[in-house]
Amino acid sequence: MLEITLGSAIIYYFASHALDIKEKPTDAVYYTELADPRNASFSRNHREMVQVKPALENQFRGIVRQAYDYSCGSAALTTLLNGYIGTNLTEQQTMEGLLRYGEYNRIIERRSFSLLDMKRFVTAIGFESGGYKGEFSDLVKQQQPAIVPISYAGFKHFVVFKAYKDGRVYVADPALGNISFDQERFKEIWENNTLFLINVPKDQQKDLLALQEADLRHVEDATINRYALVDTQYSYDYINKIADRASTMRRVIDQGDNSDTKGQPITTFMRLYYKRK
């Protein structure tokens, strides 16, 4: 009995130390494929791990999402401060700073923050900043992120200009995430050609808002315009087949006057129909 126990312990020890069992990442997905499709032997399978992340995570990469309908200004400023200066602020902290150093009564009255409120808060934390007016070429020439007001989908909104490349303007939108506009479309929605810049010494600048490969994956505007309002059409026969498959069958006598099987037993499908009150 002692020999069996000792033997089992030795086998367990060597087995547990011989196998290098690593903890699997939470975002790991394993897939298996045949290394040689001509041979279906399991021993020839190739197994590889890939890591997947929710699309939403990349959509809002480097962006502080606005917590309220009226807080795009504070979220955009927080995004700019964290991504370009390297602060580690939350939107709530930025809002408190804007309320403290900005025009408090006017903020409450209009339920939004202005570029002047942003300038006063940025000055309070030790940086120079200002709102400017210029042409599109001036915005691109700065080669740095800037807060720009836009009028989009019927709303006035603050976003962070990130970069311009090959006819497209890439922005960090506190509500929609990393998106881009066609150059001409951006010019149309850019409010009063206004931009808000923060002056940061070169050695203190961060590149967390720099353009990345994932930002370049966009659908052409023409494609969106072509398919956005197109209703999906399905074959009526196909829909009927699906409905029949999900129905209960029963045998009845065919009562159709023009039917070739009138008076004969046939299989029909019982369906349930619902209507709104």
Automatic annotation (TrEMBL):
One of its GO terms (molecular function) is ATP binding. It holds the Pfam family Peptidase_C39. InterPro entries: Peptidase_C39. One of its GO terms (biological process) is proteolysis. Residues 66-197 form the Peptidase C39 domain. GO terms for cellular component: membrane. This is C39 family peptidase. It comes from Acinetobacter defluvii.
